[in-house]
Amino acid sequence: MKTKRQKENIPHESPSSKKAKTSKHSSVIIDFWNICIKINPKSPAEAFFSLNSFKLVGPFRYLNDLHFGIKSNNYLCADRFSTDLPEMQTFAIYHGGHFCFWRDLPEEEPKLIINIPNNQKLIFNFPIFTIAGNEDPLSVITFLTSLKKQNVKKFENIFEKIENRSEIMSKLKIYKEKKFLEELREKRKQITVGEPFHGLGIKIEIINDVGYRPVTENTKKLRDDIIAYSKAKDEAQKAKLKEHFLQLYTYVTIANDEMDFGMGLEFGHDLFISNYECFDGMTKSVLEVTYGLLKREEFGKILKAQWEYGRRINDKGFKRIV
């Protein structure tokens, strides 16, 4: 006996399609997800798996209805790498790295996508952040084909069965142009200050020269000092370096009192992505205070969850994939 749906010839919707319609994600993300559903209805998260094992994770778990394994108290840490700042949200992994949405403010939609490659030894210290696209996940497809020297035309055949193929091809054409990423990177430089290790700058409101002061005039020396302290076996050397970092911590406190909150944000970012456990206490302390002062409380919640759940707990699992 035919159901009413079958009699009226109404196509069945997959759970993923229904979830997309009720999602609070941006239209750009939903559009990309719908493309994935059309390419691979059974497993949309793996629609582009042929491209270096590219797989959607993070927020796409919800859209794919695969969030059942995530406990309510640690969903903020789902699919996060140890060097994923609260400003970052990993949404895809591939053989060799991962992609993150980047937000400067917790309430805004992501405007950038960052690529973080993993080195051969899979050591998560001072990762290289590269602007790989705008807010559209489709833009990283062209980035990855270029990065891995894939045959782009051959890969584009995957879109053949999609109704709005011409629209997708137009976007891909723009994303493939060299100036696309150059303009994104130049714009980023114009709206940020500072020289944090990740190379993306920090976005801080500066009024009458108040809001930011640099952590150091020598970024390379700061990096070298962090490494030296983490590896120091000589107690005298370690004590001297510790005194130096406590002094920097004091400078951040003074800067906060004088409303130069950007110094704490930059210093906190540097300590965070250095990813040495010996700096975890100072990292959390600096960023907790900074996010509160900047009224970026949601980032503070993510930070707290990372420390409570285990900041490095996902790295071992990802090593098998990336």
From TrEMBL:
Region Disordered: start-end pairs: 1-22
Cross-referenced InterPro entries: HPF1
One Gene Ontology cellular component annotation held by this UniProt entry: chromosome
Main subcellular location of this protein, as a coarse class: nucleus
Subcellular location: Chromosome; Nucleus
Pfam family, one: HPF1
GO MF annotations, alphabetized: histone binding; poly-ADP-D-ribose binding
Biased composition (Basic and acidic residues): 1-11
Recorded superkingdom: Eukaryota
GO biological process, one term: DNA damage response
Keywords of the record: Chromosome, Nucleus
Family: Belongs to the HPF1 family.
Protein name in UniProt: Uncharacterized protein
Species of provenance: Meloidogyne hapla (Root-knot nematode worm)
